[in-house]
Design goal:
heterodimer; A: Alpha-Beta Plaits; Alpha-Beta Plaits; B: mainly alpha; globular
């Protein structure tokens, strides 16, 4: 068994380490290798895909509930608007900023910003209604510069530029994978027309055949946005979302 | 009956010689309106005495000037305002932090200590019921006596131009005696606070006192033996420390090292802040203090450091000797003295960015083995050098 003890230094070692410690301190005192961003006065330049505060565009929303379904933290609740449609509200007390909602939004109604410094006085205020999500929150900007982290070889250094970073990014909304809804088992269809009632884009059509007293449902692949509402609501669970 | 005219004559005949003042005076007289005002003020007499002239002469009177301006209270006050800020800034840079900044950001937070002082002034001074009320309030103020009295003997001048309030042959002994008196007041503070942490701090302070006091006195004794005098005016004379090659730190580096470590121990700086260890005993003897009294306690360590650094400058770094700055006359010695003292103080306070705290047994071990050995060797070395030179 090997016994681990305190290292033993002789006088020359001790002197060497004292000189090394003092010279390191003097060097850092003169030229510190500091890479701290002085945050309120300057901001780190964030990428356009930064996952920050979310903005909402009601014109693009098709009330498909996809954001609400996909939210792993259950932070997005749909609230009914006067227009009869359902729009998302975000509880930032629960939100984990995974931005699955933005990725899953088929219409691109939700989009991200670089805003990451929003303060709330109470927990209730963190529940953000749809109206508050349309306009970006009021921010008092104190920053006068932008900081970029530059990696040259293996070392990290700061590059400071005098400009003001725009926090509202204008990027193309994520289209995701184009999906359409198809019926996989037509024989089990009850013709309850739930899919027809719920479809926002009018892709579901029903044809009544008088001879056989049956109703044939059809989904128009061109009109279907792949929102998945009919898949959720189908009472027989015979609808599936597949790739276009 | 006091001989007023004789007294005034004594005062007016012993001024600090600053040629720059005469240059400024001549320039002022040439400015149209201001020159007239200045000339009127200087000739203004009450009871036949040019009172403004006498006031200026009194301020420039050597003993008064040295006590009040350099190296006395004004320098001490400036140091107390600047040194904690410089310490926090430089240690911050060492540790990749920013240090004080938010108060007056244009000057990098330089008036942070003024803001702290304001806060201390408006804080309530709490005297808890277990404390000995009178001693609890008196000891921090009594502590000022041994801290401020050494200012009377500090010599900021160079060879032939002493800038010292009182010249005596026992100056160094008195200063060392006063410095050795300081821990008594700290222990008194701790006793009056009647708190377990302050008791622990007091015991630690006593331990540290035993660790540094003997080597400290022997190191000073070695320099007294080397210079053959303990008068602070003669320590920096034409014979002693005439050029930088004859500085105490060159002639007797071991004594300088011992003195420096003893200074770090005496002022409770890291790596020897054992009595006041924040993380363990929460500022030790001063744990119960609040408000301005705590501010005094916080600042007293810096005052002590200033006194000890000034003694170190006199004994080991040639006092105020340095290249003469034109037009400043005798003031240039004072400026060199302040610069040297500030450098020593900066090295002293920035040790806390480099070293962790020693355990109390390690500190005692350093005091009684390494430092005592160094001090004794330095004493013998001084005797040998003294015989040779």
């Amino acid at each position: 068994m090997k016994k681990v003890g305190t290292p033993e230094y002789d006088l020359s070692d001790k002197l060497k380490y004292h000189v090394s410690a003092l010279s390191t301190a003097a060097k850092e005192m003169a030229l510190p290798l500091n890479i701290t961003t002085h945050y309120p006065r300057e901001r780190k330049r964030q990428p356009a895909c930064f996952r920050g505060y979310m903005l909402f565009d009601p014109e693009r929303c098709i009330s498909c509930f996809q954001c609400s379904f996909v939210c792993p933290a259950n932070a997005i609740w749909m609230k009914d608007a006067p227009s009869g449609r359902y729009y998302p509200t975000v509880d930032y007390g629960k939100c984990i900023f995974c931005h699955f909602c933005i990725d899953s939004c088929p219409g691109g109604a939700l989009r991200t910003t670089k805003i990451h410094d929003v303060a709330y006085k109470t927990m209730d205020e963190m529940f953000t209604s749809t109206e508050e999500m349309i306009e970006p929150p009021e921010i008092i900007r104190e920053d006068e510069g932008v900081v970029d982290y530059v990696i040259d070889k293996e070392d990290l250094s700061l590059k400071r530029t005098k400009e003001i970073d725009e926090l509202i990014v204008d990027v193309e909304p994520s289209q995701g994978v184009p999906m359409i809804s198809v019926c996989v088992d037509r024989g089990s269809c009850l013709a309850c027309k739930v899919c027809d009632k719920i479809c926002e884009s009018g892709a579901v059509s029903s044809v009544v055949e008088e001879a056989t007293m049956t109703v044939k449902m059809g989904i128009d692949a061109e009109k279907c946005t792949g929102c998945g509402l009919c898949v959720k609501e189908c009472s027989m669970q015979i609808l599936r979302l597949v790739r276009k | 009956m006091i001989d007023i005219s004789g007294l005034i004559g004594t005062i007016m005949n012993n001024p600090v010689n600053i040629p720059l003042l005469y240059v400024i005076y001549d320039l002022l007289l040439k400015i149209p309106v201001l020159g007239g005002i200045v000339a009127f003020l200087l000739d203004f007499t009450i009871l036949g005495m040019p009172i403004v002239k006498y006031i200026i002469g009194f301020v420039l009177w050597k003993p008064f000037f040295t006590l009040i301006i350099i190296p006395g209270f004004a320098t001490l006050g400036t140091m107390l305002l600047v040194l904690p800020w410089l310490e926090r800034k430089l240690v911050g840079r060492m540790q990749w932090r920013v240090g004080p900044r938010e108060i007056e950001p244009h000057t990098r937070g330089s008036i942070q200590l003024l803001a702290d002082t304001l806060r201390f002034l408006f804080q309530e001074v709490i005297i808890h019921k277990d404390a000995h009320k009178h001693y609890f309030l008196q000891f921090p103020f009594l502590y000022f006596i041994p801290v401020l009295l050494p200012l009377l003997f500090i010599n900021a001048g160079a060879a032939g131009h002493p800038l010292v309030p009182i010249q005596t042959d026992y100056a160094l002994q008195i200063m060392i005696g006063l410095v050795s008196l300081m821990p008594v007041f700290i222990i008194g503070v701790a006793w009056a606070a009647n708190n377990r942490f302050s008791f622990i701090g007091a015991v630690r302070e006593a331990f540290m006192y035993f660790a540094y006091e003997i080597p400290f006195i022997i190191a000073v004794l070695a320099m007294i033996v080397l210079y053959g005098t303990s008068n602070t005016a003669e320590v920096i004379s034409g014979v002693n420390q005439s050029t930088w090659l004859h500085w105490g730190v060159i002639l007797n580096p071991l004594a300088a090292l011992t003195f420096f470590i003893a200074t770090a121990m005496a002022t409770s700086r890291l790596p020897f802040d054992i009595p006041e260890a924040d993380q363990e005993v929460a500022f030790g003897p001063f744990v119960e203090y609040t408000g301005i009294v705590f501010g005094l306690a916080y600042i007293m360590a810096y005052e002590k450091a200033y006194v000890l650094a000034a003694i170190m400058t006199m004994l080991f770094f040639g006092g105020g000797s340095g290249p003469v700055i034109p037009y400043l006359g005798e003031l240039s010695y004072g400026i060199w003295f302040v610069v040297k003292t500030l450098i020593i103080l900066l090295v002293l306070v920035n040790l806390r960015g480099v070293y962790p705290r020693y355990r109390i047994d390690q500190a005692l071990g350093i005091g009684w083995s390494a430092m005592l050995t160094f001090a004794l060797v330095a004493l013998v070395w001084s005797i040998v050098i003294g015989v040779i030179i």
